[in-house]
Amino acid sequence: MLKHPTLDQLHALGLQGMAKAFVENAPGGEADALGHHEWLALLLDREASWRQDKRFAARLRYAKLRSQACVEDIDYRSPRGLDRALFQKLVEGAWIDAHDNLALIGPTGVGKSWLACALAHKACRDNRSVLYQRAPRLFEDLALARGDGRHPRVLRNLGRVDLLILDDWGLEPLDAAARHDLLEILEERYSRRSTVITSQLPVDRWHEVIGDPTYADAILDRLVHNAHRIELAGESLRRTKERQTRRA
Question: Which pTM does this prediction carry?
């Protein structure tokens, strides 16, 4: 392993990317042909890339995405009604800058959660904070947090992330505590952050899932009126893949 006072200093200063580049471009290699400014620029570029990769990895760990999905892997040929032009515009991320919401609606198996995770992955790459939550589990966790004193902190964390994914919304009616928590989350995020919600239910049935008419009006006003909508249809992609596997 290369031993050099400069390398020790780079490690001591926490410049791990520069240290790695220093070792990989040790004297005797192609770096000998570089001038002082070019050599320094190479080290700085590697440090910047190393820090960017480290931040990206940290954002992904925090996001806890359900799927390892990437927007580059989206199959637009599947017969599910996904508008390619609209989705590619969403990939660009201007709707997150504008603090808009997104509703992904359709039957089970058509890829709603996967598409949401793909957008979330791209948001992480774009240096945005992201958090994925399954709605049923989220309300259970909030109920527990209310009992052990973590409730205010959990709500703050949900309100602060640039992009919040609420997956599997509407699987069961909300109780009074869940209604209140959801309104608090959306009130904190309204016009400040973006939320993606996936659901098997059409929007016109969300009112009955929330239950209380007053809460329902307030929640849907903050969630739906500035939301882009993607309504998917068709057969479950999982069943399609299973049939293709059996034929193979």
Answer: 0.79
